[in-house]
Structure formats: C-alpha cells, structure tokens
Amino acid sequence: AQKVTQAQTEISVVEKEDVTLDCVYETRDTTYYLFWYKQPPSGELVFLIRRNSFDEQNEISGRYSWNFQKSTSSFNFTITASQVVDSAVYFCALSGFNAGKSTFGDGTTLTVKP
Amino acid sequence: GAVVSQHPSRVICKSGTSVKIECRSLDFQATTMFWYRQFPKQSLMLMATSNEGSKATYEQGVEKDKFLINHASLTLSTLTVTSAHPEDSSFYICSADDRGSEKLFFGSGTQLSVL
Predict the structure, then answer these.
(1) Contact B109 A46 (CB under 8 A)
(2) In terms of CA atoms, which chain B residue is nearest residue A52?
(3) Residue A37 Cα distances to A27, A91, B65, B88, angstroms
(4) A106 touches chain B (CB under 8 A)
(5) What confidence score (pLDDT) does residue B86 get?
(6) What is the mean pLDDT of each run of 10 residues along chain B (115 residues)?
C-alpha cells in the first residue's frame, strides 16, 4: 500500500521568510510519481510539480524548489521569500503511472502573514 | 494551459433529491477523469475513475448506486449523487489527466450541502 505523510499540519511564517514543507512517502513500486499541489481558499487544486522516481535532480522554479531524496523517501518543497499569496493548503501526492489514482497526504496549511 | 471546468461550484439541496455535477476538459480530450471527495480540513479521497465509453471504476467503500458516474464523451464526465442525505455533504472535485503534458488538472470543486 502507498502512504504519504505530511507531518506539518499547519505552518505560519512572516512574509519574506523561507519555508519548507515536508513530505515522506512509502511505496513498494520501483516506478512511481510524486506531486505537489496547491489548494488556495477558492478550492481548486493547482498542479505545481510532477517528478518520477528515476529523476532525483532537484528542481527550481522561481521561488519554488523541490528536494527529492530517494534514500530517505522524501520530497520536500521549499518556498523562498514567501508572500501572502502563497497562503494555501499544500498537498503532496504519490501515484503509479496513473496520476489520477494518487494517494494524497493530509496537507499542510501554510499561512504567510504580512 | 489545459483547463477543467466543474459546475456547479455550490449546490444546496433537500434530502432525498439528486444532484448532478459536471466536469469538462476544455481544451484536451480526457479518456479518463477522476472524482474525489474532500471533507473540511482533510485530504482528497479518490471515489472513482471515470472511463469514456465504459463503466466507472469505484474505490472500495464507495457505493456505485449512490454515486452515478457517466463519461459520455471525451470531454465530459458527470457525477450524480442520488437520493442525497446530509452525510453526503462534502466538497467534490474532479480531475482529468492530460497525457500530452503529463499533468493532472483539477476542476474548481463543488460544495454540496444537503439539508
């Protein structure tokens, strides 16, 4: 069975601080995909990144960066110089080939205060 | 980019009535769509996989006669909550897999409140 653990239920930071959201996963599959999604108060999930299990390169996209450590089964997400608009619930997810059948973590609610 | 449209965004109904939720992929064809349920401050739980032209595949514990799914075309899937009861009140979200971009796109969700 697959499992995704986001240990941080809620995080609160002040604008311009850096913040890291943790994600630890469990799977017996050798090929799998990891995702991060953002869910703002409006409710719609926004795709942020997809990473396959064979690609351990870290990725940076603007203020966002992701650290994939297969050895520790972690896929952490860092927001640099956080902004109020980053306030949302962030979900980490794990799937096989079919992304729609992902196992989601419980989410981390990030609040960025001005 | 690809967009998934979900309607209605909010619906309030009386107990015992049926409610239909639509999910459309606007600029790509989706042979497979997915339906999730999300309780307040909780994660998404996959309810079923909607397959164009065939029966939906339901996750364990989800009543297929309660949650009717129809995927009539490559761009439209519908979820009908039949004989809704207050315990069916929840946030329902659909998604569609754009294989071309390897991304999963989500609808904006439907908040169902059953009185």
Answers:
(1) no
(2) B102
(3) 19, 5, 31, 25
(4) yes
(5) 95
(6) 86 96 91 91 91 89 94 92 96 86 84 95
